[in-house]
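Tokens in:
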């Protein structure tokens, strides 16, 4: 260990075992684009810390160990404004800085080639274009192009979830419904975390379903003890069906939210938050 930094292995990093990969996929609900060891230092921290890092969608997930099933930190990089060029430090590692709307993040890779790969993939998913870096190899650029297409398709799916047609009888209809304020394009795990961390802001979240075609409701009840529940909301034609013991059919997603609120006499309240940037910031 040098200066508080754990030495990184010199051999190329191998992916996590399949059961661990599947668990991470379930928890994050996001596609894996790139992974490997990174040393990370937030602008307010004094030392780098080594993480096994995964780029999923426009999120960086940091794991204390390559085989850890759950992440210890995460960072939303969708607000990336720019990234510095990769430059070597005195120890031969490759360093670059991400400029985010809420601060800076310093990243350090084993060598310049690895650093340029990380920078290239990060710019690809945040700017939706492949980096013009001429030092990147053809196979690296090919992989970035593949990731670009996957991320574009993912964004289209999210947009479809957040702007479902109000009237689908005519394929030419351009009228879109306004999503409820408590809708968030998050996974089941992320919805759970949001409710647990911010109980004062509500206890009901509407989110995309696991199949990206339907929806789900996540609620947190505080009775004898906090209890979480999840309900499927199926889209059928111009209606929405809540999968309860006795199915309930309603004309809009807002009516779905209102149903839960009225049936619990206001004990369930829509989760409303102005900004989620602070929740996803990396702590020292």
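Residues out:
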């Amino acid at each position: 260990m040098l200066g508080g930094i754990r030495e990184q292995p010199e051999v190329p990093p191998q992916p996590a075992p399949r059961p661990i990969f599947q668990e991470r996929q379930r928890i994050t609900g996001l596609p894996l684009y790139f992974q490997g060891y990174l040393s990370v230092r937030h602008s307010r921290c004094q030392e780098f810390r080594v993480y096994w890092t995964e780029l999923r969608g426009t999120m960086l997930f940091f794991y204390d160990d390559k085989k850890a099933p759950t992440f210890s930190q995460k960072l939303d990089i969708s607000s990336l404004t720019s990234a510095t060029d990769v430059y070597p430090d005195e120890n031969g590692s490759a360093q670059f800085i991400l400029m985010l709307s809420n601060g800076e993040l310093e990243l350090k890779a084993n060598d310049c080639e690895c650093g340029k790969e990380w920078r290239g993939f990060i710019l690809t998913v945040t700017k939706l274009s492949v980096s013009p870096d001429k030092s990147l190899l053809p196979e690296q650029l090919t992989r970035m192009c593949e990731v670009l297409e996957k991320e574009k398709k993912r964004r289209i799916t999210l947009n479809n979830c957040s702007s479902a047609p109000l009237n689908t009888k005519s394929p030419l209809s351009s009228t879109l419904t306004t999503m409820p304020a408590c809708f968030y394009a998050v996974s089941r795990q992320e919805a759970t975390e949001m409710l647990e961390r911010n109980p004062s802001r509500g206890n009901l979240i509407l989110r995309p379903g696991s199949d990206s075609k339907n929806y789900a409701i996540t609620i947190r009840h505080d009775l004898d003890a906090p209890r979480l529940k999840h309900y499927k909301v199926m889209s059928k034609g111009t209606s929405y069906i809540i999968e309860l013991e006795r199915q309930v059919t309603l004309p809009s997603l807002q009516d779905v939210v209102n149903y839960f609120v009225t049936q619990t006499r206001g004990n369930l309240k829509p989760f409303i938050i102005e900004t989620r940037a602070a929740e996803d910031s990396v702590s020292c």
